[in-house]
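May I ask for a sample protein chain and its fold as tokens?
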Amino acid sequence: MKTSRSGPAGLSPYQEELREQMLAAPVVPAPVPWRPVFDPLVPVGGLLGIGFATHPDTGDDLVMVVSNDGHGLFDSVTGEKIARDRDPDPDDSTPDAVPDLSCPGLGPVAGSRVRIAGLYGGGLHTTTDDGWTLEVVSPAWPRDRVLLSVDGGVPHSGPHGEQWWHVFHSYYSELRAVGFSPSGRTLAVATSSDLTLWTRTLA
């Protein structure tokens, strides 16, 4: 790697300190009150993107997954796949067909549209009303790391495992989308090959 008086690849001493901090942090479980929904994740080959919806009967968060194999809908509390469309209409099979990057809902949210974040663009919430923050950092690009924190994000004010946590390391697949549901009760990480979810109960 190219080095200079300002550090590797031209980084300042401060930037290099942040980089080393990220590199040294191992993957750890998300802290209480978060709990994993799957054990540990759900494989989804050719995943293109995900979006959130709300179950009209229970109010629970739902996660819609768009992939090369069709559309799926998961209950984010139980992890159950509650709907599947293996052959969606070609005009609606991917979110790039419409300006708002949405796809038609299925199962209990059929008749509505769900905005999808992922390969074609878009985004999910990166903060919650009660102070949780999500960040994607790449101290060893192209391997992305997902950080969950309660200290406002980089630069982190305390030791790893106290105010911030490295909860996901995308070293084997491309990251597609990272974010919270609008309710703040679900945290999702989607890569090109799988989906990882955490859930919590709000006080």
Summary: Residues 1-7 have pLDDT under 50 and may be disordered.
